[in-house]
């Protein structure tokens, strides 16, 4: 069984410019496998610097903001053991180094091993709206791949959780996702 954690990956290019992106990190016995699709700034950064930070956050605006382009300048602080950056909103983070690369023309797999782990604040759990925003962000990242009917069905279902448990943060993030879907359908498409 594959166990994937929905995370925010912070990576840096060779010049030290920080890139923030949501990504599922597959849990392994020794760390994580990251498998970004090509083209990907995260992939380019991982191959160039051989390190990144796996961030765990409950601020779902980061997930929604990254996939919709509503906000990309998420605050970061320097990592402790690698040349990298930690998401300031992280509840916990793991600084990782790339141990092996399985190249692929579409989706390379990078085996990453933690070199430093820090818990900043306790995780008190997601409410249903937070989980819905994360799922909605995954859908938006695949607008160019999925049929409209599937998007509509999933958004309708996820809207139930938004209506029942969303607070101001989740409502803001959900609004960004719905706006992005509308833009895509109006011809502002392309990959989210």
UniProtKB/TrEMBL annotation:
Pfam families: DUF447_C, DUF447_N
Matching InterPro entries: DUF447_C, DUF447_N, Split_barrel_FMN-bd
Domain DUF447 as annotated: residue spans: 5-120, 127-178
Protein's name in the database: DUF447 family protein
Lineage of producing organism: Bacteria, Pseudomonadati, Pseudomonadota, Alphaproteobacteria, Rhodospirillales
């Amino acid at each position: 069984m594959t166990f994937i954690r929905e995370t925010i990956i912070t990576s840096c290019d060779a010049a030290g410019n920080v890139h923030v992106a949501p990504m599922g990190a597959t849990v392994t016995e020794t760390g994580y496998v990251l498998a970004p699709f090509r083209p990907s700034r995260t992939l380019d950064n991982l191959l160039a610097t051989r390190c990144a930070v796996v961030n765990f956050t409950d601020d779902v605006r980061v997930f929604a903001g990254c996939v919709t382009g509503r906000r990309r300048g998420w605050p970061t602080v320097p990592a402790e053991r690698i040349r990298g950056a930690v998401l300031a909103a992280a509840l916990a983070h793991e600084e990782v180094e790339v141990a092996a690369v399985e190249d692929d023309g579409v989706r390379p797999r990078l085996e990453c091993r933690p070199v430093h782990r820090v818990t900043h604040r306790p995780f008190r759990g997601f409410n249903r709206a937070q989980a819905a925003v994360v799922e909605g962000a995954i859908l938006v990242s695949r607008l160019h791949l999925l049929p409209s009917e599937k998007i509509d069905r999933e958004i309708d279902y996820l809207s139930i959780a938004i209506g029942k448990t969303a607070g101001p943060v989740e409502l803001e993030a959900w609004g960004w996702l719905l706006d992005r879907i509308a833009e895509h359908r109006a011809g502002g498409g392309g990959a989210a």
